[in-house]
Amino acid sequence: MNLESRVAKTQKSPEELYNFLTQVENFKNLMPDDTKFELRGEDKFLFGLKGMPEIALGLKDKTPHSEVVLGSTSDKLAFTLTCKIHEASTGSEAQLFFDGDFNAMMAMMIKGPINKFLDQLANGIEKI
């Protein structure tokens, strides 16, 4: 299952946004207030969305100033969340990509909450 957010625009430079996103504790600032968030080390965190099980994400890969990849730490819900960063005239633009391998039933159940979550993260990026 592949999902993507809208393009989020921020006044931060690509370098500033990249540095912000590679510090996983900053993801708490991007998430809705009602989301459970718990740091699990220097590069991992646990979060819980309403209607879904808690999920642990860890920093998997990063390309300076252009891409940050987080991945699930569980084999049961294996997916990646990638943020691609591009320079824009007034700062930078970011787009989030969710890529997971789920059976049809699971994909149908989580598609709505994941799309909403991607939109909320995009909104959070625009507010930082």
Automatic annotation (TrEMBL):
This is Orotate phosphoribosyltransferase. The lineage of its organism: Bacteria, Pseudomonadati, Bacteroidota, Flavobacteriia, Flavobacteriales.
